């Protein structure tokens, strides 16, 4: 099943790319707010299994797609979680997950404009995990049972702000408006048969600048969920940005950053693609 946020309403996508409105199709059993489904995830999945997707479907406009989770209570992000990215950063592999956060106000949809915050804004394609069931002290073997699905994410980073001061300001530098696009939809795990080997790619103006696979993660998704849930509960709808492979602008010689007019494309095999235009700040 693929779920999307269409003009602020929860929809189920059909095989031909159209959408069935959940609130309408369920007769009000589930509300239109995409956030609400995660708090009733098991009940929602049972209902959706019997949904007639041939009735009442409407076309989908890219411009109307919003973040698959509009108001997560927690957003976790993992640094240096790909071996080649750690190498290009000149840093050793972490002994345990390196965790920071992105603030929820940075979330944006999978298509549209992203305003630059400065002249050192970088790209980072990331696989995003969406939690579907509260996780507390979960063992790695049970971690996937707590996942609603997966989505494409982009962890845009203002390196000037991120690296300012000692220690660096990771969360602030990664939380400007628009710096957390997630989408284009949520794919439930049955839609992702080879989730341990997904190809992540990022392109700027048609040039591929990042290409990697989730098999290169230092800490896999089960380990991340276990580690995080051992510290604080993971709640339905929470997001985990799981790290980026090599190819970021900061790691290049000379460094390269996004500029006004650039087109940023972010894609993961089997999960879809996002596209954004980089614009001047308003």
TrEMBL record:
Question: Ranges for the Fumarylacetoacetase-like C-terminal domain?
Answer: 75-279
Q: Name one GO biological process term.
A: carboxylic acid metabolic process
Q: List UniProt keywords, sorted A-Z.
A: Metal-binding
Question: Does this UniProt record's set of keywords contain ATP-binding?
Answer: no
| Molecular function terms from GO | isomerase activity; metal ion binding
Keyword hit for Metal-binding: yes
PANTHER family in alphabetical order: FUMARYLACETOACETATE HYDROLASE DOMAIN-CONTAINING PROTEIN 2A, FUMARYLACETOACETATE HYDROLASE DOMAIN-CONTAINING PROTEIN 2A-RELATED
Protein family (similarity comment): Belongs to the FAH family.
- Could you identify this protein by its name? 2-keto-4-pentenoate hydratase/2-oxohepta-3-ene-1,7-dioic acid hydratase in catechol pathway
Species source reads Plantactinospora soyae
The beginning of the lineage is: Bacteria, Bacillati, Actinomycetota, Actinomycetes, Micromonosporales
